[in-house]
Design brief:
Blueprint: E1 25-29, E2 32-35, E3 40-43, H1 46-49, H2 58-70, H3 82-94, E4 99-105, H4 108-125, E5 132-136, H5 145-149, E6 166-169, H6 181-196, E7 201-206, E8 209-210, E9 216-217, H7 222-233, E10 236-241, E11 264-267, E12 279-284, H8 285-292, H9 310-325, H10 328-343, E13 352-358, E14 361-366, H11 369-381, E15 384-385, E16 387-389, E17 392-395, H12 403-418
Parallel strand pairs: 3-15, 5-6, 5-7, 7-10, 10-11
Antiparallel strand pairs: 1-2, 2-3, 4-12, 8-9, 11-12, 13-14, 14-17, 16-17
Helix pairs in contact: 2-9, 3-9, 4-8, 6-7, 10-12, 11-12
Amino acid sequence: MSRSTSSSSLWRPWMPVTQQADLQITEARGCRVRDADGTWYLDGISGVLNVSCGHGHPRLIEAAVDQMHRLSHYDPMAASHQPAEALAQRLAEIMPGDLNESFLVNSGSEGIEAALKICWQYWRHLGENRERIISFEAGYHGTTALGQELSGLPFTANDWPNRFPVDHVALPAEPRALRTAEGAKALLALFSQALNSATPTAAVIVEPLLGLGGCTVFPEGFLAGLRRLCDEHGALLILDEIFTGFGRTGRMFGFDHDGITPDIVVTSKGISSGLIPLAAVTATTAIKETFRDAPVVQGLRYGHTTGGHAVAAAVAKAVLDVMAEEKLVENAGTQGAGIRSGLDAFRAHPRIADIRGLGLVIAVEADSPESAEAIATGAMDNGLLVRAERGVVRIAPPLTITTDESIELVDKLSRAIATLG
């Protein structure tokens, strides 16, 4: 049997094929994970930023096993089933305004593609061929072909020609300088300019805060202003809540901080707490109704074999029950504020450029990618897993994190920062 230079047959995402995994996780409980050597770590990145209810929550496992005994899945094109129906109804109850219609898929990337398909078909139902999309240059919307085109981040680039026109809005200042009223005005001016240029816009798509784009927190009023601009130009507003949705920012959804209602919302990650893949695309009833009256009745031309999986839907409903009963949204706000307060002492550190966050999204911006990597390595040496990305250390523990665990997280991260000198 042929072998590459790697001793593993597993092809890992984003990593050079010659790079071996330094860590192999064998067990996880609550906010902690254990490696193959038996060392336990405080999980500061929630698995893949998705373990909202903590690892191995018994209520979620029970919901999955019970549904497996009843019905694992059935073709959603051929028949409906109760778990998917119940989840869609629950999402309609917790979403604001007229966001009543949910389409279930497997991942955030699929959700973004479905949202774009809904958008394009919607405009054609209205007799307009709008295709142009406006997004942040530093936004991230998945790794499928259409999602990559929405982003201007270097690692999303591909060699294929664009399938639709995209205008990327660059940040007008460093993230630490944007969290002001002036920052909001500058951002909105750039989106206004983009909306007023070229052909009519089909949609504006943004994250409530930029995740992979530096964990950038937007100023208060930005999303409300963007909603007004979209209304003025007749463009749809799509919110990518894949990372931020379901309590991560200290509100149920990131757009709740500005009290707005988007036209389409894409959610994933925390919706099933990492137990089983799931994503939802939730649109207004007005958008769905255009499919009912379409000249050529074909329905939404998008779908996947396991989209709307019965077990995934049952787990997601249990996630929402756990979040309500354990007050995890409120806990995210409280614990996030405590962690940021605990890290305030390092704001004046010569190697730290900024400390920012919203709920349990916390970012420590270092003076260089090397410094950020050193912090992440030092944190791991102290028993804490965080993620360094292009000079920013991202911290996003499970929403179940306790006050004692938050204090422990701050202590371990502080030790890592202190080693920078």
